[in-house]
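Researcher: I'm preparing a figure for a lab meeting and need a structural model of a single chain. I don't have an experimental structure, so a prediction will have to do for now. The sequence is pasted below. Please return the structure as tokens so I can convert it later.
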Amino acid sequence: MPGNKRRISITQVTEWKDGVACRVDDCIAGEEPLEIRIGGRSFGVTLRTPGDDLELVAGLLFSEGIIADREQLVTISADDDTDINAAGKGNVVQVRLGPGAQLPSEKSARGFSAGSACGVCGKASIEELRNRGISRPDGASRFSPKTLCELPEKLRAEQAVFGRTGGLHAAALFDARGEMAVLREDIGRHNAVDKVIGWALNEGKIPLAGYAMLVSGRGGFEIVQKALVAGIPLLASVSAPSSLAVQLARELGLTLVGFLRGRRFVVYAGEERLNIPAPASAHSARH
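Model: Understood. Here is the structure written out token by token.
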């Protein structure tokens, strides 16, 4: 797979342990800029972990509303990454859009150019999402708490690059039985999600009715937005969501779960999709 050999970099570090220092080889997660060019014009640059770049770009263009389906992505191609050089070979994806695609403005391109942790900083507005007419996820999907609690261990077991570097986020799709459909890793939370959505777009699986997405970091606004655009009915994270993420999930009907660890989780929105008994009297949650 293109970019695989650049996902991990090996470097020498000094390790201190119990009063003794020694030089050792250490694996660190790869991070390189990726430029997206649409019709020969630069759309923006993001920092990402190389690999699955075409899925990343396809998922980004879909989640940002630039394309509405796979057919509007006429061509998408990446430079051959076998000859990386100072000119950025291997770090450019070229895209040609078809009829009906919403060509990005200079403003949206500037808002996209960001670091690996930023996401869609220029679009953190629920009102803007309302104007896009995003549909509510399907209401028929159901997930059992027991199955949900098994997902973090399955995610961790398949994080190959994280296992060597400890430095990557992951996003994965699971069906209602807890079977994993796809997992992608990246230095950026939102990039990992876009790679998963790009995979689903290429596979003709959008909207992703009947699937739950699990992310290894927090459930922020940009992650909730992308899940909604892809039609995912349940989004879970091992950490906390943000207030804006909870507001958006409640307004647009997404089941949002946080602090999914061990045999415990917190439901912030959409508990009707989970087969759980009626909650007892209110008290303060402990995280």
